[in-house]
């Protein structure tokens, strides 16, 4: 019994000495213990770009002033598009949309079969957007803005001196990004341009003709997003 008490006291003494040794080591000069620093936050960039394949689907409407009941139609096209977005805040952004495409202009109604001519179209569009940020990786947005369309490289077909005037228009936009990580994602975007331009030319017999080209195209794009 006495041996047991001696062993117990020895164990208590050893434990006490062990604790004291640890405490003493913590107080040794030159040894400091600081809490682990939190990781630095990732810097937020306001810039984003997208590259899309864009389908341009005009609304077939227009007129020849000198021919009552006449109408115009335009070919559809697919073209690459680049847009550049700047975020003022995580929700508010401005987007510049750049792309060019080719269209054939033909007559309908009483002038059906008339091949007015071909033209290249450059419609840079600037929109102000609101981005929704409460859906995780899915980031929808809406936008509205202004468009200025340049018509260039016009070629004459059945109309001599066929020409379309550059024109302002309004734009509405809805779309969404699905982000795989902080940089890369997929994008789907739909825009409606309200675009009408004046045109003129002359028939084979020299008769001067003019009218409106009411294109009002849908721009339907899909592509990749990169956030800097």
Automatic annotation (TrEMBL):
Annotated keywords: Signal
GO biological process, one term: transmembrane transport
Signal peptide: 1-25
Isomerase recorded as keyword: no
UniProt keyword Signal, yes or no: yes
Stored InterPro entries: OMP/PagP_B-barrel (IPR011250), OMPW (IPR005618)
Highest rank taxon of the organism: Bacteria
Cellular compartments per GO CC: outer membrane
Entry similarity comment: Belongs to the OmpW/AlkL family.
Stated name of the protein: Outer membrane protein
Organism: Afifella marina DSM 2698
């Amino acid at each position: 019994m006495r041996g047991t008490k001696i062993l117990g006291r020895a164990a208590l003494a050893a434990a006490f000495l062990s604790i004291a040794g640890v405490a003493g080591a913590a107080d040794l000069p030159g040894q400091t213990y600081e809490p682990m620093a939190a990781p630095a936050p990732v810097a937020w960039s306001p810039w984003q770009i997208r590259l899309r394949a864009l389908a341009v689907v005009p609304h077939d409407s227009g007129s020849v002033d000198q021919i009552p009941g006449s109408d115009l139609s335009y070919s559809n096209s697919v073209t690459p598009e680049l847009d550049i977005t700047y975020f003022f805040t995580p929700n508010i952004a401005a987007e510049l949309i750049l792309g060019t495409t080719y269209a054939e202009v033909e007559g309908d109604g009483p002038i059906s079969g008339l091949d007015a001519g071909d033209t290249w179209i450059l419609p840079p569009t600037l929109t102000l957007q609101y981005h929704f940020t409460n859906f995780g990786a899915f980031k929808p947005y809406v936008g509205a803005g202004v468009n200025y369309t340049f018509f260039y490289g016009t070629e004459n077909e059945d109309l001599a001196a066929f020409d379309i005037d550059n024109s302002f228009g309004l734009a509405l936009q809805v779309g969404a990004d699905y982000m795989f990580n902080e940089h890369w994602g997929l994008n789907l975007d739909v825009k409606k341009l309200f675009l009408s331009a004046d045109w003129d030319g002359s028939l084979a017999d020299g008769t001067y003709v003019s009218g409106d080209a009411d294109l009002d195209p849908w721009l339907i794009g899909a592509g990749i997003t990169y956030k800097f």
